[in-house]
Amino acid sequence: MDSLIESYRERCRAESLEENILQLDLLKELSKFKKESELNLIQKFLVLITKTSYKNCFYIHGTVGVGKTLIMDLFFSNIKESRKKRIHFHEFMIDTHDSLHNIRKNNSKIKDNSFLIRTYAKSLKKDFDLIFFDEFQVTNIADAMILGQLFIELFDLNIKIVLTSNDKPKDLYKDGLQRELFLPFIILIESNSNIFNLNIKKDYRISGIDRDEIFFSPISNENYKTINELYKNLIDGHEPKDIKIEIKKRSFEIKKFANNVARFNFNELCGQPLGSEDYLKLIQNIKTLFLENVPAFSDDNVDKQERFITLIDILYDNEVKLIMSADKSLENFTSSRRLDLKFKRTCSRLSEMKSQDYWRNNQ
Question: Which residues pair with 58 in a beta bridge?
């Protein structure tokens, strides 16, 4: 039996996981890709003279919680190739910008960006023949402008790439600034990749979560421990990182971000002057938000309550899941007098966001 399939079944047995037919199909396709990447020199020569066409990239896409990380874990550990690297794509792009900056600094007379990117790609080839990218996504024009040529160089150097993404290739950088300049990259990916849609409707990360227990009150050590367990479950083995984004030319830090999950204290989001535009920018890559230590509202903190109302509207309209701890239960939320009527609508939305239908429909 294929070692990758056997590893999957052993993992399912050990962790009481449900075997999924589509995940098994994906593993079979990855096994073929694995065999192609491990060809010896004679086999590679035969491939060359017979003009057999093998893809340099394997692109896995699917919604959150369908097992992409599990599959990547298994596949990466089953690859014999020692010259391999696995990295979160956001971290890779930070490294890429830093490396290009250093290459530019050491070659100040050369203004050609193509040279810089080619030099960087060759430096990667010195160490790696296979690169795994977790959570591939394109969120800004600076990354978009680099990726096209960088992937051309990586493919030319015969560096194999395996990546996971929430987006199908044609939806990458959707509605982004000057997206038309990014379209050649999408064509490049589509023509050089085995593309697999892990189209599972079930979110395995939340299948064991009781939806009656996603809003916690009162604020207590016991509830804090439960929230920690939920957070650990939802980040699904990814390493939490603090990432910086720019909001209206101000630097804003998203703390404990992993696997499209972010975790905030109430005052970090509602205790400072932020508005709807800021929250929209903030949640671009967030599928589930933890919001902790929401206070009771009164006339004394009306400004914070107003921001909380705006934040909930943004989360609701953009189908972001919410896990929250609060001083009062949803049924006993208090309000300032000025916002009392408006807050009733917010509580209604919170009640819907707590429901199984909301979580099921927004997977």
Answer: 162, 194
Phi, psi (rounded to 5 degrees) for 209: -90, 130
What's the Cα-to-Cα distance from 108 to each of 98, 146, 354, rounded to whole Å?
A: 15, 19, 56
d(CA 188, CA 170): 11
Outline where the chain has alpha helix (H). 3-14, 21-37, 41-50, 68-78, 89-106, 113-125, 141-156, 183-192, 221-235, 266-270, 276-282, 302-317, 340-353, 356-361
Residue 292's Cα: distance from chain center in Å? 22
> What are the tens digits of pLDDT across the range 262-299?
999 999 999 988 888 888 888 887 889 999 999 999 99
**Angle 4-189-35 from CA coordinates, rounded to 5°:** 25
What sections of 132-210 are H helices per DSSP?
141-156, 183-192
**pLDDT band, very low/low/confident/very high, at 45 (cuts 50, 70, 90):** very low
Q: In this structure, are residues 294 and 334 in contact, taking their beta carbons and an 8 Å threshold?
A: no
Evaluate whether 210 touches 60 at the Cβ level (below 8 Å). no
Residues 64/205, Cβ–Cβ less than 8 Å? yes
Which two tokens mark 274?
A: 């932020």
Please identify which residue in the block is written with the tokens 């993404």. Answer: 165
